[in-house]
Amino acid sequence: MRGLLLSLGAVVLAFIAAPLLIVVPMSFSSAASLEFPPPGWTTAYYGAFFGDARWTQPTINSILIALAVAVLTMAMVTPATFALVRHRFAGKSTINLLLMLPLAVPHIVIAIGYYAYLSDLRLLQTFPGVILAHTALSVPMAFLVLSASLKGFDRSLERAAMSLGASPAATFRHVTLPVLWPGFAAAALFAFIQSFDETVVALFVSGRDSMTLPRKMFDSIRTTADPVIAVVSTLLFFTVAALVILPMLWRSFSRSRS
Amino acid sequence: MDEAAGSPAVSRRIAPQRASLRPWLLLMPLLVFLAAFFLVPLAQVAMMSVTEPEFGFGHYASIATDGFYLRVLADTFATALLVATCCLVLGFPLAYAMAAASPNMAAAMMIVVTMSFWTSFLVRTYAWMVLLGRSGPIAALLDWIGLPHGELLFTRFSSTIAMTHILLPYMVVSLYAVLRKIEPSLLRSAASLGASPTSVLRHVVLPLAAPGVVNGLTLVFVLCLGFYVTPILLGSPREQMVAGVIGQQIEEFLNFGEASALAVVLLASTLIVLGLYHRRFGLDKLWG
Fold first, then answer.
1. Which residue of A has its CA nearest to B21?
2. Contact call for A243 and B120, based on CB within 8 A
3. Is residue A191 domain-resident?
4. What is the DSSP letter of A88?
5. In a domain, B252, yes or no
6. B42: which chain A residues are within 8 Å (Cβ-Cβ)?
7. B215 has pLDDT over 70
8. Region label for A91, one of left (φ > 0), alpha (ψ between -120 and 50) or beta (otherwise)
9. Backbone angles phi, psi at A226, to 5 degrees
10. Is residue B13's pLDDT more than 70?
11. Neighbour tally for B273: CB within 10 Å
12. Would you call B20 and A89 a contact, using CB atoms and an 8 Å cutoff?
């Protein structure tokens, strides 16, 4: 029974990994259509990606939008998280639920809301429109990550600093922030990725000038199955690999040193 | 859990009168923002469902009586249930293997699961188009075995398998969270008291894993109900899911009323499932 479960587990792990890995050889395939294994090899589609503004511009747009989303999200979520973790007040659990709501509402539902609402505000198909929508959607994950890290924070450190005469601002800068920065960084990264990957709302509210990368990919997969998709997928795959694996290596490195 | 227990002493010393106002000042920017850029657009969807093009509940009446909409809703629920079940069946052995593995091995397996979680939906959807395509490896394998198969892509099968793959990390993480907490000594004592491996699994492991199972099933089911991208790109055009129909009503027919009414039905279904979960377990546990 146990052996069966373990070997099934290995099969499932392969099922998870195989589709992630297949995009890498596909990106070097010379075939103009979906064909695996590839009939020949080329790097031409990498040139096609980096040399074509129809691909590079949405990529740049997505990075800029995601950066703005991360900054805006952190600016609002940070004080809110301190309020919710460190204070007790009436209505707290309702506020908690409200902050989680964007995670509970299917994106297609809020996408048509944004479509109508942002066009009333004349923000449809603009950068601010996409940024505002994505910021609302990234609030829950940033809040979850930040509050988890804040709950684990030992407040006696702050009390010690203040009893030694540090002002609240100095305490925050020299005690709270240095301890919590991995939590802040993780929350900001979650907000960035949430925006960078978001497809459904972007399909409805981003326009020609504010076109995001997922929207460009969606259009391309739907209409032509352009081989450049495999290139984009491979680049995204290695970016994610770096983001997942590097912090783990760094953590085990710093652990082995200490 | 709650750090607030120690805070009154400190905050009273810093700001004696503002103690009760302070959290609200800190919350204000986010609350105003969410009201303006989440609650209002969400309310607008509900409004449009009864005002576009004219006031009335006609759209809801047509959803309740039209065979097409009823079939789409039934298909959506059936698909979400199927995907949640597939995720459980596949996720359990993997989470079990991770809990049984050495710490290093478990970490390596977790990297694979995490990478899948973080890889864009679109990348994973595209990968399944390659795998299931007419000149893809799975068709080649089936041909080689001599198994007759029709078109694999753009069917209910292809969208179900891709959605299962995309949502599986949620299930694995939910299950792993409970399975790794089970003490190995508990399993050993059950075995030493004469329980067969199967009955250890049934009477010890599964009951202890139940919260994770409920967690994973709820997450996957709810996320699957609202899936838009994958069924459109991979699924059969004849068997749409409700999110796809909502998008189509806007893109092709500019029918905001009907689209909004369907969206309200989808939202209500999602919130009912989450509400039931919340009453029983508390929503803050769902996302771990």
1. A89
2. no
3. yes
4. -
5. yes
6. 105, 109-110, 113
7. yes
8. left
9. -50, 130
10. no
11. 17
12. yes
User: Residue B256: which CATH number?
Assistant: 1.10.3720.10
Whole-number mean pLDDT of chain B? 89
A23 close to B (CB below 8 A): yes
Whether pLDDT at A14 is above 70 = yes
Minimal CA separation from A32 to chain B, in Å: 12
Tokens of A211: 């076109």
**Sorting pLDDT into bands at 50, 70 and 90, what band is A74?**
very high
CATH of the domain at A142: 1.10.3720.10
Under an 8 A CB cutoff, do A109 and B42 touch? yes
Kindly give, in sequence order, each residue whose CB lies less than 8 Å from that of residue B68, ignoring residues fewer than 6 positions away: none
Average the pLDDT over B115-124 and give the result. 93
Cβ partners under 8 Å of residue B213, min gap 6: B88, B174, B175, B206
Kindly report which listed range (A133-142, A226-235, B2-11) carries the lowest average pLDDT score.
Answer: B2-11
Closest approach of B156 to chain A, Cα-based (Å): 17
Best of A35, A84, A87 to disrupt the B interface by mutation (most B CBs within 10 Å)?
Answer: A87
* Orientation angle between helical segments B256-281 and B67-100, nearest 10 degrees: 40
Confidence of residue B19 (pLDDT cuts 50, 70, 90): low
Decide if A5 is inside a domain. no
Model pTM?
0.91
Distance (Å, whole) CA B97 – CA B205: 13
Q: What is the pLDDT of residue B288?
A: 61
**A88, B11 contact by CB (below 8 A):** no
Domains identified in chain A, total number: 1
The average pLDDT across B243-258 equals 94
Q: Judge whether A67 and A192 are in contact, CB under 8 Å.
A: yes
For residue B211, whether the previous peptide bond is cis, meaning omega lies within 30 degrees of 0, is no
What residues contact A93, with CB distance under 8 A and at least 6 apart?
Answer: none
* Averaged pLDDT for residues A157-169: 90
Domain, as residue range, for A200: 54-226
**pLDDT per residue as tens digits for the range B154-195:** 999 999 999 999 999 999 999 999 999 988 888 888 888 888
- Binned at pLDDT 50, 70 and 90, residue B4 comes out as very low
CA distances from A21 to A16, A17, A155, A199, B261 (A): 10, 6, 45, 22, 41
8 Å CB contact of B93 and A133: no
* ipTM of the modeled complex: 0.92
**Is A121 in the B-facing interface, judged by CB distances under 8 Å?**
no
- Residue A41 three-state SS: strand
Q: How many domains does chain B have?
A: 1
In Å, how far is B155's CA from the nearest CA of chain A?
Answer: 15
Counted across chains A and B, CB pairs separated by less than 8 A come out at 281
Asked whether residue B13 is domain-assigned, the answer is: no
